[in-house]
Amino acid sequence: MKTPAFFQRSELAAALWSFRREFMVVGLFSMVANLLMLTPTLYMLQVFDRVMVSQSGLTLLALSLIALFLFAVMAFAEWARARLLVRAGVRLDEELNSRVFNANFEAALNQAGRNPIQAFGDLTNLRQFLTGNGIFAFFDAPWTPIYIGVLFFLHPFLGWVSIGFALVQAALAWFGHRRTIAPAEEASKAALEVNLYLQSKLRNAEVVESMGMLAGLRQRWAQRHAAYIERQGATQALSHRIAAISKWVRYCQQSFALGAGALLVIDGQLTAGGMIAANVLMTRALAPIDQMVNTWRSFIGARSAFLRLEQLLQAHPERDPALSRVPPTGAVVLRDVLASAPGRAEPILKGISLEATPGTVTVVLGPSGSGKSTLARVLMGIWPDVDGEVLLDGLPLAGWSRAELGPHLGYLPQDIELFDGSIAENIARFAEIDSDKVIAAARSAGLHDMILRFPKGYDTPMGEAGGLLSGGQRQRVGLARAIYGDPALIVLDEPNANLDDVGEAALMQAVRELKAKGRTVFLITHRPGAVAVADQLVVLRDGRVQVQGARDAVLAQLQAARPTVPLVTTPPAAPPAAIPA
């Protein structure tokens, strides 16, 4: 069977097309259920026009038993199609949840301010719509013409009345779609903004409380919340008006259908049984359209969720799982690298070129805002907007499989984030725990003795230990995680920002050990004490390399530029002027 154009347009549409057999079976059960919906009509016709005339109790019993059997078959068809759709929804979730998780992770990595749970809410919304009452309306709607055809068979006047009401209901559904889709999307966007704003403030609750910022932030939240409530209220009011009009049309249809049938009975063109049956049949004929009107909001929500998921999966395609490379040695080359950010006129990094070979330590210095942390993210391949070449062992960093490359990289960001789990699990990066490697990494970071003082040692949950750890201790846990397994390339961004003298000494010793093992280390810092372990220095200013080269040569160049400033090789209380802080 040739795939329709709609299902060829995206990965998500193709995933839905893979369930075409299930939908065809649902359509088959819908056909059985809708055909048997004629049972009440036929039963009424037989009771009023045959049993009431013949006064035959046996005929009534036979008709009732047949009707009960057909009702049982109809109920089974309804149950079967509902169960099949629920199972299809579960399978859809199982097929897409990992894919959505990976794409959502990459999107959250590349887009600041993105709601990380929205994609999963969209997947749930889409699955619930596919298993809810709304989808049944689409399967039942094609049978509306058949019911109308039966009404024409009873009497053409009844058929034309049903067509008139069907057109009114269809117009109402179209009007609801045209008028509610834009307000619904605006309300959804406003809700997202409110949630993101609230989440960001809750993450910094201690800062807000300590400096009395709650009142001002609450006022700003209230403004956003009021805008969301206003848009949501307008959307709901419009939906309720449409639903009320739909209900009024439905009541009018029921009454007018009965009145039209009574008029035909008076005129002798229809029997009393036909009048009752026509009323029931017309109600059933228009039920799918009425159900579409009532479930239009859920349809719009599912449609928006589909479009967002489709865009997410298209923007972040699945990486080749078969991609495999030789483990890297850590040779790094940057050529004319430009790193930009949305909303910023100029790039953050402007034409950065440098090289680092295995077994060397590169110390990156520079004032705040010079692009040092951006350079760290570029080296890790986690900065989204990069031009130029970032090569690892001569191959583009973007061409590596992250799952395969990750164990060979170590990264310590400025903001240390420890995750729910034990200390050992955090150090082992939540992979299979190698106790020897965990202890070795903890010893290198100067953590081993401290961890053993906890009642549960390395098995202490971070939820318990996190509140007991100082900023420096958390930074050393992050350092142990970065050097776990002796990765080939290690990037440390301000690793000594919260360390005392003992912690900094442990850091310098860990860097020397990594260098002795032939690892490539980038050390980004404000403190000049790290210069002692450097093989090369890179000084950044305004996103450009100001000075670069071997340590002694760069230090001599900086001292020559400011000869009055003595050269300091041990960590002083404040950075010397000769080395940009």
CATH A-level architecture of the largest domain? Up-down Bundle
As a percent range, the share of helical residues equals 55-70%
CATH class of the largest domain: Mainly Alpha
Described by strand count, sense and barrel closure, the largest sheet is: 6 strands, mixed
Helix/strand-derived category reads: alpha/beta
Number of domains: 2
Spatial arrangement of strands, main beta sheet = 6-7-8-3-9-10
Q: Please give the count of helices.
A: 22
Named CATH topology of the largest domain: ABC transporter transmembrane region fold
Features:
10 strands; disordered C terminus; ABC transporter transmembrane region fold; 581 residues; six-stranded mixed β-sheet; four-stranded antiparallel β-sheet; alpha/beta; elongated; Rossmann fold; single chain; 22 helices; 61% helix
Can you tell me about this structure?
The protein has 2 domains: 5-315, ABC transporter transmembrane region fold, CATH 1.20.1560; 332-561, Rossmann fold. The radius of gyration is 35 Å and the shape is elongated. The protein is 61% helix and 10% strand. Mean pLDDT is 81; it is low at 564-581. The protein has a 6-stranded mixed sheet, with helices on both faces. It has a 4-stranded antiparallel sheet with strand order 2-1-4-5, with helices on one face. The protein has helices spanning 5-8, 11-17, 20-36, 39-54, 57-110, 118-130, 133-140, 144-154, 156-203, 205-210, 214-266, 272-294, 296-315, 372-380, 402-405, 423-427, 435-444, 448-452, 462-465, 471-483, 501-516, 551-561; strands at 332-339, 349-356, 361-365, 386-392, 395-396, 409-412, 489-493, 520-524, 536-541, 544-550. The protein starts with a helix and ends in a 20-residue tail after the last helix.
